[in-house]
Design brief:
mainly beta; 33% strand; two-stranded antiparallel ribbon
Length: 63
């Protein structure tokens, strides 16, 4: 998703958001991992988190 680090939002972390512009279409499944990088260089991986897109059908009224 990104090749650069996203700075932390405070000493206790924060809320982060990223939009995947490559995940398109009415149906599909994507998995994501988050890598945490500490100031001392230690890394921790979280995930995977899987997102499933499903088709939504709108009701139709016919007379």
């Amino acid at each position: 998703m990104t090749t650069s680090l996203i700075p932390s939002q405070g000493a206790t972390g924060g809320s982060y958001r990223m939009t995947d512009t490559h995940a398109t279409g009415p149906l599909g499944q994507w998995s994501y991992w988050l890598e945490e990088v500490e100031l001392n260089g230690q890394t921790t991986w979280y995930g995977p988190v899987t997102v499933r897109m499903q088709t939504v059908y709108m009701p139709a009224v016919v007379r």
